[in-house]
Amino acid sequence: MSNLKIDLIAPPFHGHLHPLLGVARILKDFAQVRVITTKDAIPAVDAAGLASAIILKGKEAAVWNIPNIGQSVRTRPWLMWRQFQQNVALLPGLKNDLSQLWATEKPDLAIVDFTLPTAGYLARSLGIRWWTLHPSPLAIETGSGTPTYFGGLTPSKSAIGRTRDQLGRICTRGFKRVIFSKFRHAFFPYGITAVYRPDGTEATYSGDKILAVGMSELEFNQDWPRAVRFIGFTPYTPAVDRSAPDLDPARPNVLVTFGTHLPHLRARFTDYLNHWANLCPSVCFHFTTGGLGCSNSTDAQWKSYRYLSYEEQLHRFAAVVHHGGSGITNHTLRAGLPSVVWPQDYDQFDYAARLAHAGAAIRCRNAASVPAALETVLSNPNFRARALQLSATLKSYETSTLIRQLCVEAGLAL
Fold this sequence. Notes:
- The protein has 414 residues and is α/β, with parallel strands linked by helices.
- It is built from 15 helices and 14 strands.
- Helix content is 40%, strand content 14%.
């Protein structure tokens, strides 16, 4: 067995945990791997056949309350402020738990989800190499190009567009500096003294390596910080439910999914699905609730499931209606499927913009526009052709080889 020890740290949110588990499974082939997360995520870690350790025990509800605030955050700074306060309140417990774990079992490398920079700084202070894992690399700031988190902007070469982008970058940096100034007392104990390094890169990410999940070819910006390495996509879905969809052989089957966040939206989906099914009688809809509800069910007009394995089942559909989360975006691209994207929050507007700009999806502004968009996506073969092209590009990333090569370059003994 290899003497190389690697700890991977992530919150329990599926969009963060699942990519990390995919990377951990690759690392397991040549290192001793341990996944550190909250107690409620341990069953998924166990199902992946990985060793685990628990942090923030008893604080699981507080962790989930950060993203699930009952409404969309979008670009509302007061809601972002509230989420930041909730995050900061958990930092002492996180530091204490990690310090205890690493006092007895110190790894050679800590790969930390981008939402937990204090864990990375703590690792570095203990002499542990720190890399950032970023499942949503579009959030990484670049020195030029189209800024993100402004409702899904697309590239513009006009003078107005360039001015817009410059103002967007200024606003982003200004907002982050204001937030940091108000909470700097919580970060100083970790050695985080500024939002940006002298070279302009974000100090909340590793200056050594940022493992960017996905493909650079989908992104608008290409002047990435030196530390960024795109590693492709690790399509991992825990074996929570192995239900097979009941497909209709006479109609195109369309998957509808809106992730595991946004419960306030998913609770209303019965009304949306009834409306869409009435307007699109030639389509068989399949809705995966992300755990909402107690059991699978079949309706006269559409079918629902608590979970479906994207790895095993997604390729069987004709198209996907989704919210533009990073996970479902990459799964859909890997399966070579066109999509209709109705973004709701966070980075979803930016993923919707990228998919539409690439010609693999139609972006919708509201629920009423979904049926017409879906009919177009299903009837126009160009969407499927472009999705297949992007799928080939994504699959060309040899993720296992790339990760192993990065470890070798870093001088880690395999």
